[in-house]
Amino acid sequence: MTSRFTKIIAAGALLVAAAAQADTPPAISAGVAAKLLVRGDLKGLQVVDLRAQRRNDVLVVQAEVYNDTKDDLRLYYRFRWTDEGGMQVGDSQVWKPLVFLGKQSQMLNGVAYGPQASDFKIEMSAEPR
Question: Which residues touch 87 (CB under 8 Å, ≥6 apart)?
Answer without folding.
Answer: none
